[in-house]
Structures are given as structure tokens and as C-alpha cells.
Amino acid sequence: MKKIALASLLLVASISLEAREQLKIVGSSTVYPFSSSVAEELGSVSKYPTPVVESTGTGGGMKLFCAGADENSPDITNASRRMTLKEFYTCDRNGVSDITEVMFGYDGIVLAQSIENEKLNITKHEILLAVAAKVPSKDGNSIIKNPYTSWNQINPELPNKKITIYGPPKSSGTRDAFEEMVLEYQTNEIKAYRDAGLKGYRVVRTDGVYVPSGENDNLIVTKLTKDKGAVGIFGYSFLMENDDMVSAVTIDNIEPTPETIASNAYPISRSLYFYVKNSHNYIKSQAAYIDLFISEDMIGGEEAILAEIGLISLPLDTLEKVQSHVSSRVKLEESDLKSH
Questions:
Q1: What is the mean pLDDT, run by run of 10 residues, along the chain of 340 residues?
Q2: What is the 8-class DSSP label of residue 153?
Q3: Fewer Cβ in 10 A, N or C end of the chain?
Q4: Cα(198)–Cα(128) distance, rounded to whole angstroms?
Q5: Is 41 helix (H, G, I), strand (E, B) or coil?
Q6: 112 — phi, psi (to 5°)?
């Protein structure tokens, strides 16, 4: 009887593995529009069901993806920054030890405002002074609690407007990338931070000036249409999708465009990723989805489908390298992340 029962359980498990064809995808709100477009395309042009794509934020997606490799766990997680070593170790500890990293395009983190406002240009350093919890004193000799409440206090040439910044929460990859590129990179180089033992400081103020606004970037766009004096932080694709309501704040006199972002001329540019759980390759739609996502039609060059909704596409020579890397399902190693 026990043998029959065991055989029955194994048969049920086998049928279950064969049965699930619908991919489960989680992660970045920035990547969500691109991932959803590929999912819808797969559902319309193939025999497979449309994958379920959930916007959880990069950090939230990594937690779900790395929690285990059982059938009900996500098959793919989207990320608007690279997986961290801590996340890699969590994955490995929980049996998610065979992962392929896919870099599929570029994005800019934009600051935007209501289209009704006059054009605004701020420097990367002025953004640091507006956002960081601790900033250099006026004489530059010490680090103090951020005293700035209006833009003209930072620079008399900026508008006499209250500083209100709607931005992503801590779970967001956009927030991680923003903290790294705008705060950490600059404070590494500023003597006052080094002298105070705060080299690489990346703490965002929590006194109400910076307002975490959830993982839905469209919500930030809505807030900007109502709060005309505010600035919002989100990915370039949301600027493109809502250019009838919001406009970009130029940074160091550079406007975010596909050309300035792809060339890294725009000061807050980054790469976008998704991560594949290779142990879930028994789900037949997984390979079909990945191949469609990294096809030339989707992400290769300015005429690519995803470029139409704001993705900064890969040059074709780079795309070929990505396709080769993915077709071999190259396993992500600890050393890859350490070399970043």
C-alpha cells in the first residue's frame, strides 16, 4: 500500500510539473511595462498562456525569487539594478543556485515636473543637497542635518519653491540606483563626508521633503499633475508615456534622451535586467518568453518594439553577445557580482 501511495504522489507531482505552462514573473516597476508587453505578445503569437507579471519592486521581487525553487515560486524576476551579493547568497542558501542574468537594455532615472512649469535645470550636486539626510555645511567643513526646505536656499538662482520630491520606496531598484549614483558616488568624493567617516553616504532624508510613493510610478505622475511645485523620480519610460502631463528636469544641462542615456552622457543612466531560474526550465513557455524578449524585434535598435514604450535598446553587436550568453544559460557566479 505504501508503495502504491508513493507512486501516486510521484505521478501527481510529475503531472503538476508538466501542467504549469504559465510563467510567474515578479520584480521591478520600471521593467514591468517591458515585461508585460513581451508577455502579452507571447500570449497572442504562441500556443502558451500569457505570463503573469507582478510589479513588486526590484527588492520585493528578489525576495520572492530567492525564497526557494519550488513549483509555486517565481520563474523570473525583473530588476532595475543588478542583483546584490546578499541576494545572491540568499538565493543560493534557499536552493536557487542556477540563475542566468540577462541585461536587456538601458534606462535613465529622470526627475520630472508638471508640464505647466517653466523649464528647470539642476545639478547632480544640488540633487544631493536636496535629498540627503546629512549635507555639508555652507563652509564645507562639517556635515550637518539637512536644513534645506526650498530650492533657492540651495542655489539662489533656483526657484523659490518648497522642495517636495515624490520618489520610489526602499524596496525599489530605482531607489537603489538613485542612492548609488546620486548620493554614494558623490559623497565618496566630498572631503567633508570622508572627514566625518561618512564616505559613500547614501541616506535619504525622512523629514517629509522626500516622499516615498509606492512601486507604481504612474502614481507619482498623478501626484505631479496635482502638486505643481513638486518633482518626481522615476524611469525614463514613464516620462515618455506621460509627456503630455510631465516634462523632464535637465540635470547638469543634459536632457534625458535615448542618445544621452545610451552613451552615459546623461548623469543618471543605468542598465536593466531580468533573472532566470534555470531549474524551472520544465515550464515550456519559459524558453519561448526569454527568446522573444531578447529578439532583435523586441530590443534591438531604435526600431525595436520595446523602444516605442521607452526602452533604450541595445546596439546590435551587444545584443548578439546577450543572445549568445542567454542561449547557453550561462550561470551567474559570485565572482560576476564581485567584479561589478
A1: 45 48 94 96 96 94 97 96 96 98 96 96 98 96 97 97 94 91 95 95 97 85 93 92 95 95 93 97 96 96 90 92 97 89
A2: H
A3: N
A4: 14
A5: helix
A6: -135, 160
Nearest to 53 by CA among 67, 66, 68, 37: 37
CA distance 333 to 99: 9
Q: Parallel, antiparallel, or unpaired for β 246-248 and 99-114?
A: antiparallel
Rounded Cα distance between 99 and 104, Å, is 16
As beta bridge partners, residue 114 has: 246
| DSSP structural state of residue 238 | H
Nearest C-alpha neighbor of 109 from the set 270, 309, 340: 270
Rounded to 5°, angle at Cα 136 from 203 and 249: 65
With cell 526600431, the residue in question is 303
Contacts of 89 (CB under 8 A, 6+ apart): none
The answer to whether the CB of 38 falls within 8 A of the CB of 153 is no
- At 289, which amino acid appears? Y
Whole-structure pTM value: 0.82
In this structure, are residues 102 and 275 in contact, taking their beta carbons and an 8 Å threshold?
yes
Three-state DSSP state, 138: coil
What's the one-letter identity of residue 300? Answer: G
Q: What is the Cα–Cα distance from 336 to 87, expressed in whole angstroms?
A: 13
SS3 225: helix
CB neighbours of residue 18 within 10 Å? 11
Q: 200: helix, coil or strand?
A: coil
Query: Residue 332: is it exposed, middle or buried by C-beta count within 10 angstroms (0-12/13-18/19+)?
Result: buried
Question: Which 3 state secondary structure label does DSSP give 99?
Answer: strand
Name which of 254, 224, 4 is nearest 109 in CA terms.
254
Beta bridge mates, 76: 25, 276
Distance (Å, whole) CA 18 – CA 12:
10
Cβ proximity of 249 and 112 under 8 Å: yes
